[in-house]
Amino acid sequence: MTYAQRRNHDRHYFDHPLDLIDGHVATPIISLQNPQIARRHLHAIAFAAFERDHVARGAAWHRTVESFFISLDHDGRAPVDNFVDWLRSRPEELLNTLLRTIPEDLSTSLGVQDWSWVDALTEESEVAQNHGWLKRAVGEVRQDFEDIEDQVKSVQLSIQEALQAGQHSKAEKVARYQSALLRERKTLADRRLINFLAQRVILPKYGFPVDVVSLDVWSQGDSNAVHVDLSRDLSLAITDFAPGSQLVADKALWESIGLRIPAGYALPDSVGVRCGDCGAFRTKRSGADASVCEVCASSSIGSQRGFVEPIFGFLGRRSGDKPGEARPPKTGFAKYYFSDYAGDPPEFRPVQLGQQIVEVRFSRQGEITVINPGPGEKGFMVCRSCGHTELAIASSAKKKANFSHERPRRSNQQCSSTLANRHLGHQFLTDVVEFRFPFSMTSSEAWSVTYALMAGLHAVGISQRDVSGVSRSTGLSPSSSIILFDAVPGGAGHAQRIAENITELAHAGLDVVRSCECGEDSSCYGCLRSYSNQQLHNVLVRGDAMHILESLLR
Ligand SMILES: [Zn+2]
Ligand SMILES: [Zn+2]
Ligand SMILES: [Zn+2]
Question: Which numbered ligand comes closest to the C-alpha of 295?
Answer without folding.
Answer: 1
